[in-house]
Amino acid sequence: MARLKESGAIILAKVSTVNWYGNNGFDQHPIGATRNPYNLEFSPGGSSNGTGAAIAAWFAAVGIGTDTGGSVQIPSSYNSLVGIVATQGLVTRTGIVPRGPTQDRAGPMARSVFDAAATLGAIAGWDAEDLMTFEGIGHFPPKDLASHLKSPSLYGRKIGVLREMFTTGPLDPEVLSIFESVVQDLKSGGALVLDPVLVGTNLREATSSAISGTTHPYELVLSSNAYLERLGSDRPFKTIQDMLAAAGHENVHERYLKSMTLPSPDLSPDYLARFSLRSSLRKVVDNLMEEYQLDALILPYRTLPPPHGSLTQTPGDINTLTSVTGLPAVIMPGGYTKDKNLPIGIQFVGKSFDDINLIKVAHAFEAISKRRKPPMTTPALPGEIFSY
């Protein structure tokens, strides 16, 4: 927040999100549920859904989301936005309510690559309070990152289609059709598309929380208590255990109940294996891209936004590749379904610390495809004209 203000940003508001410890998304929410501006009967995603819906509805130019398992990328996909998660270590997490420091990231959400890149340039940088940013030294993007997005072009770009990460369930035919049209746009724009590129392992399964990919269950309680400690002695709850007991465990999501039973990370062979696998999978993807000299990988981020009241899709639709590995990603608007006007998000994935190159690819795709359209539920006010 401080870096945004120093760069000249005007902070309008903090927006609503889900009941972060609850079982039912917006249950017992003081101001009600956030809805998807493209279709009010469907979910805006989570958990940075207030940001996603607000930016899509033109309430502000840019917003910040926090991503542990997809909370920048999911609402960007469901609300037809550009969402960027930079390589882990390029943006500080100081002040963010943590879920798992190994995976937590903050990133911009906007209606254009230019706006998202300008925001990323403002917030990236080293922070003595966040040890993860030591990994970013030598890689931080320039403050004027957006000014590097000149003369967008896909000519000479090599892009791989990572079909190994497609959903294990039946992919909606309309989603697949939209994705194939995106691939055609890339080819028409001058990119060399390698389809498919194969890692040789089941990335979707290996990066899922059900198998081994995520580390945050072990970190959730300990990092939450460290955050609460920073609030001082007058805080209403001393620990997250106190907070969840006051809420009633029957109202608490099972992830928190399970986390309270897990051993400290330094005492858990399972945590060590998950942490090690995370690094290995990141190297696997980096090596694949290096071998084929790829500028980006692409895939549908998810299939369709679920109905209102649900935050997640079926297990086969989960995509936590970049959230688990810390690789950079840009979510781009891919198109909309015909009957229900549901946004389809496309994920561009890059190599570690190759963020600027990845953003340039996304910007070039945006320039040749022009796929985003504003939602009909929030038309311009009388006399309001934007040149965008």
Can you lay out the helices and strands and say which pair or pack?
Layout: H1 2-6, H2 49-56, E1 62-67, H3 73-78, E2 82-85, E3 105-110, H4 113-123, E4 158-161, H5 173-188, E5 192-194, H6 203-206, H7 216-230, H8 240-247, H9 254-259, H10 269-291, E6 296-300, H11 321-325, E7 329-336, E8 343-349, H12 355-369
What does this structure look like?
The protein is of the alpha+beta class and 388 residues long. The chain has a single domain (2-215, 275-369), classed as Amidase signature (AS) enzymes (Alpha-Beta Complex). The protein has helices at residues 2-6, 49-56, 73-78, 113-123, 173-188, 203-206, 216-230, 240-247, 254-259, 269-291, 321-325, 355-369; strands at 62-67, 82-85, 105-110, 158-161, 192-194, 296-300, 329-336, 343-349. It has an eight-stranded mixed sheet, with helices on both faces. Strand 4 (158-161), helix 5 and strand 5 form a beta-alpha-beta unit. It starts with a helix and ends in a 19-residue tail after the last helix. The model has no long low-confidence stretch (mean pLDDT 89).
Task: Quickly give the structural class.
Answer: alpha+beta
Radius of gyration: 20 Å
The CATH superfamily bears the name Amidase signature (AS) domain
Helix-strand string? HHEHEEHEHEHHHHHEHEEH
Distance between the termini: 25 Å
The CATH architecture designation is: Alpha-Beta Complex
DSSP helix count?
12
Beta-strand residue fraction:
5-15%
